[in-house]
What does this fold into?
Amino acid sequence: MLEKIPTDDELRNLVGEDGREAWTKVVRFIGEHYEMETSWDTGRKAGVYEHKFRRSGKTLCALYARETASASWSSLGRRNGRNSRPGARISRPRYEKSTPKPTSTTTANG
It folds into this structure.
């Protein structure tokens, strides 16, 4: 467990402006949709910092901050993934492949 939680400036300097913005959005989303405890620790091999979100002694997810990048690990099982605040909605992300359409490489001569 860290003795001192990193400041916004420390995180911004570590993961960059875009990484800090994404980090803030994820933390805000979790805070608005779940009731849980949080803790900070060293990220060990995964990063410089680890921000862990726990409920009932189980880890829901952890965010790892490292130089110019951030990563997340989540464990949303059937029971853990349920919303703990009645009436709130969770929108699930949609992933779409963004592969370019194939183009024809044939010439007029065949």
